[in-house]
Records
---
Amino acid sequence: MTKMLISRRSALIGLSAVAAAPALAQTRFEAAKAYSTARRGISFLVMQRGQVLFEDYQGLGQRFKGWELASGTKSFSGVMAAALVQDGLLKLDEYCAETLSEFRSDRYRSAIRVADLLHLVSGIDGKGGRSFGDVPTYAEALAAPSNRATGSQFSYGPVPFQIFGELVRRKLVTAKTGDADPLAYLTRRLFTPLDIRPIRWQRGSDGMAHLPSGAAITGRDWAKFGQFALAGGVHQGKALVDPAALKANFEATKANPGYGLTWWMPRPGMIGPGPRSGVAGEAVSLSGLGKLYMAAGAGNQRLYLLPEQDMVIVRQADGIAQSMRAGAGDWSDQTFLSLVLGA
């Protein structure tokens, strides 16, 4: 079936109706819930202007039960970078080789900036020759070679995030912040103030937290994080991160116009995470929503940010392992968001 292009005008009309007719909005949310539940959905939450409009849990889903985000975890790194910038520990345009001595004598790696690393355009193979879902240790990622000029190609995968993890770890040690690793820093600087409590977080054989995947949190906590990013990094009237660095999270590169600093931004020309994900194929229709930012993980885990509507939508699902083998399956972001917005 040909997917209908959602116009920005229709999306905005839909949101106006949400404000004016709560009962109609509930009908739309129920339709979106039914669509999600039929596709292994276990949690669905809609938040607008910081207020929860709709919340539902099905099957294994529970309000206080965390769920694996898979690659939805990646977007924490971009916002963490903005906190590091505010603390004077990092600059997005600094060369990684200033901290990672292993990069200094390498023709290509010596030219990589932090922003290149997190935009996934560093020239390093994102997968590092590994199978999908295989996350390297920090040391293994650091040893990954580069044979392309920085900025020349988008390469999705866990390697850049693990390199970033080692870069952050070294900066924390040098600055003597007292944080044992990037996750400890992220928890102290952002999760604790925002009252976000990860249920668990996978670590590698080196004991270091996986930054490209591995976080498990509740739907509400993921929505809190999304609202914080949507609010420009301000919480209770205080900026917890550098505003310019957070804004850079939602700025793309020429190599991939649909990917910011660890966030997806569906639009024409977008290169998705992989041919089976289904994300890139819907980029044009999704661009009709206006501004849309998205954290996405295997199993069709989703955190949607819609700035023009001041709305955050969370969708979590069972079947991560199945999705890693089969791809997106019958899930459609365009169809789901059409139901939510009544477009």
---
Amino acid sequence: MDDKPRGPGGRIRRRVLLSSVAGCAVLGGVLVLLPSERAAEAPDPDAGARALAAVTSGVPAALPDLEVLVEERGRRLRRHPKDAESWAVLGAARLEQGRRLADPAYWSRAEKALRTSLKVRPEGNAPALRGLAALANVRRDYAGARRWGEAARKLEPKQWTTYPLLIEASAGLGDDEETGKLLDRLTELRSGPAVMARAAAVYRDLGWREDAAAQLSDAAAAAGEPAERAAYLEQAGQLAWERGDREDALRHFREAVRTDPDQRAAQAGQGRALAALGRTTEALGAYRAALARQPRPEYALELGELYESLGLRQAAEAQYALLRERVRLATAHGADEDLVLGRFEADHGDARAAVRRLRAQWERQPSTAVADALGWALHRAGRSEEALPFAVRATEGTEGGGVRSALYAYHRGMIEREVERYGAARRHLREALWINPYFSPLRVPRAKAALERLGEPSVLAGPEAS
């Protein structure tokens, strides 16, 4: 059962739940009219205007609409090269294109446009500052995102679109207290689907899954455009997956792709759920489709491990090579992919190199995800005693690790088994399989085998064996 909110930011759940009900009541009435209105309209509403509304609100935009917006702003800037606002819009649109296509080359183009906006108007240019904060978040430079976001907030303290950027940065830096405060402020300033989705991400990290699911359900119902609705459906599918509900996850992922065929995260999610359902051929096809249009290193790692679980080592190695290439490309365009590369190296490469990489990452941004990855890398490098505090940090709510992750529990259980804390190892390995019995095609069999080797605790043993 989800814990009740406590401490700084504790009032956020009540406020956002109330605002989400109000937001759905208002926006739901609008949505009732949209299908018939669209059917009657010829031509469709301006694609550039739709993309502009999305990128200036920090919500997902359709790829075709983004292309139109980029072309429109490019034409305008050829006529008016000193238009700081258009440079900022162009940067935001390029950034969203790069995010949706997993093409880091767009991030460099986005940065050039955003910095040109600041050069043209160096004072009072909050849109460019917000764009640079969003770019830093995408590159996983959370400290930079916080700096840019705070500069924008100083100029416009009541502009709500700054706060989701600061919340993402604070979460990436492992600053849970500040994240709660920022969400409180956001919900004071704004309600609606974008706020609900941001609240859901915070709740998920705190382990409040039911609250997160409710927020995403409301957000998807209230979303104004298909690309936005599909993004929230994908997030709802991910929540269902994390709790081990394969069918519900697949339903959400499929609806997301039907709503927006360019929603590649949902296609990768389908691969995840289909593999758990034993529909391996379909799973492989879904992963390949996702990677064809959005070659994220995380998807390559998942597909590689699925191939490995099937005994297809050569196919797995091809995906691992793709992962390395995508990380190299992202790094060349200013992104920080050390977390996914460290996770990969810990299990499939050089664990000692993973430790060095993740240790540096921990110094920069001590988040729950980095704590888990560093602990596991230390374990894989033969340093399990040193690994255990990081595994505890990733899994104990009192230490900041509120997210309920089967992978994190598995890592902790395996580390505890290595240091002969057998009772704790049993608990956490069982917890991993209880949270999500299908969390990994490679690790689930290992968790079950480890539990079998541990056996049942002896009635004569001390507390540590129970």
